[in-house]
Amino acid sequence: MLNKKIILFFVAVCCNFIIYSQQIELSGLIINNLKKPLEYANITAIPEDNKLQVSYTTTDSLGQYKFLLVKDKAYQLIISHLGYHSRTQKKRIFKNEYQIITLTERIEQLNEITINYTPPITVKKDTTTYNVNAFTNGKERKLKEILKQLPGIEIDREGNITSQGKKVTKVLVEDKTFFTGDSKLATNNIPADAVDKIEILDNYNEVSFLKGLEDSDVLAINVKLKKDKKKFIFGDIEVGTGIKNRYTVHPTLFYYSPKTTVNIIGDLNNTGRKSFTIKNYIDFEGGFGKLMNNTNSYYKLYNSDFSKHLLNEDYKANTNKFGAVNLRHSISKKVDINTYYIINSSSTKTKNELQNKYLNGNNTFIENRLTMNNSNNYFAIGKLTLDYTPNNKEKLSFNSLVKITDNINDKKITTSNPFQNNILSTNPMLKGINIKENLEYSKKLSKAHTISVESNLNYQKDQPNTNWITNEPFLDDLIPVKEDDIYTVLQQQKTTRNSSSLLFKDYWILNNNNHIYSTIGTNLTFENFTSNEEQLLSNESSNGFFLPKFGNNLLYNFNDTFSGIEYKLLTGIFTINTGIFYHNYKWNIKQLGYSRRNHANILLPKINAKAEISNSEKLNFKYSSNIRFPNSSKLLANNLLMDFNHIFKGNDMLTYEHYDTYSLSYSNFNMFRGFNLNAIVYHNHKKRSIKNTTTLNGINKLSTLIDFTMPENDVSANLFFSKKINSIRYGMQTSVSYNEYYQIVNTNTSINKSKTLSSTFKIETLFEEFPNLELGYTMAPSDFKTNIQVTKFSTNKLFINLDYVFFNDFNIKFDYTNSNFINKKSNIHNTFNNANISIFFQKEDSPWGLEVGVKNIFNTEFKQSNSLNDFLITDQKTYILPRITMLKIHYKF
Known about the structure:
mainly beta, 63% strand
């Protein structure tokens, strides 16, 4: 079957070359009256024969254009550029031709001109506008399928958008943020027939008059609706049933008007589809770019229990209930109110098989572990935003967010190793509430001065509780259990955190080329961490793990008062921003009846230098010096039970981590040549770190933390390249990393080195009539070297994706992945296949659609992967959902 698919692919490719062998090249140069080349001029070739496709292109930075036309066919050429008179000419060519076209500058008033032609693509500074009708055929169902047709834009299967090699991080509809701004919710839900234009907005800033002052890497996409959809209710509903009681209900409803928008998305399914992901959560927390400006906040968020739940994507069974409502209303021309409410409830079953290889000097051994988990997870998030814009020089914004979490797990762990064979039941539970308030005010005081003030309040309370039940003792003598028939250990934790921050910034524009920015601010945090462990005995009495070894009650106060100055120079193609920030850190710790006060004064420099070689070619260098402080749980004086084989003891003498980051990125996008190149090199140099030290006894580990001053380095590089030739796009994406770090196990300090490489090569067809296929291959070898051995992994993947519209009303989609996992040291070799297929039918003018689909066609049981840490190499089997066959009915209104 696979061979037939590949044969079809090559037949289609051959047909493509045959067709294009009948075409000839029209190329040339577009200039103005002064003989200077015009970049981003639009050239459209409209054939007189309606059966032929409209051709279009834009000029590059040298004013050049090139496209293919069918030999001996009549075309109408339309040449246009913003600010110039459009030209129209008829063309019939019989051989390759080169033509120079001159456009004259428009000097008339706009109200004296009537233009009936809309170019497919318009480029103006940081905004690129696509006229959707020029690229689509009307058979697209969702926004995702429109974006696939637009030159310079790529979209993956999850709905993540890349434009000109840069990731889109915010989605707007009619200039307003759509839900959280996440691309996945927008691309998979906005109906295609409502979209008129797509705008790509580079260096996007919600406060318009701060653009050019604040450095912004945000790339946004703005969806412009058709006139008849600007005050209209539209959407669709998907209902499906399948073999073995599978079901899905997925309604989407959108109401738009100039003053009010309402968006409703629902999802009820047991097919494994997750409607709210870690990316959605990051967007709610302010977005990736904003979080990375505060690395402490980013790491705390990403490593939280709630985030770990969202990161899980593989299940043996999953039932998901999701509801989201977004209401935006313009109370007046000056006041906008925007609210989001998201509720998600899911029940999941997971199964993981691990083969852990422990590296403890010459005493290496293998542990086999099976983990089965049933979990019920619930969370609700609500966000309110109030924007007040009295004029174009002033803006006030208030945000309030509430998040409630309630997760319950029922986990069974079976471990087999040379030291013990044990079966444990454990029940982790997490209840939490988080309330955030944010106030931002910006005002342009004069041509020279603009100010910005931001204030934040945050309250967070988490209560993770766990119990472990087994018929055998665990952790040997590390926990003071009493002998019993059944061993039941209970743990209660509670973390309460109150924090506030205030930031003031002044933007001083000396002249067009020189800016000075001043910043002052403070961050204040109060944390209280408590933990308690005890053994519940069979006679209903309890054995408390009391002081001095267990039980924690920590009060932690932290204050960062800072000021900084930045100088921004704009000269020629360069923009250079250099700054230095002075931080006065103070932190107090109180526990076990004593208190400790600490302080540090540190200067942190940063540099950001950009070179805009052209509108489509850029070079960017960044350097920053960073400080990261430990959270309260790392400062505990007593033991904390982490898992059935792990006890952690904090260290209240810890100070901070200090590291420098460097990055150099290069991007080159040429729509004229169908060329896209992005490369980045990243280096992280740790001057001092907080290092984990581990004492191993079999699989049991006792870990603590120390300040570590030996330098550590990691270097990574990423390269993305794509090239379109006729109707075929070739692509390559490569990432490589080298990490050199120390480990401390059983008082032995040694250096580890890891090398990883992942390269994906793919070819994708972009035919109008033939099946469109994507063929790709990924190679991902990795080496891990310790002082005693070298371990080599390799994961190779072949993937095929098919998308074909036939008989006008049918659309077939098929994807296939063949994965090959090898652990050369352990001689483990596994191959697994995964494939999905769907056939969708809908008459052109009918609101009804019918879809038949099969997921996991080969009924593959698991995925294979590997991981490593300071003393452990893990081969993992993660079990996934079985084959699912579904029949779905779609209704569009």
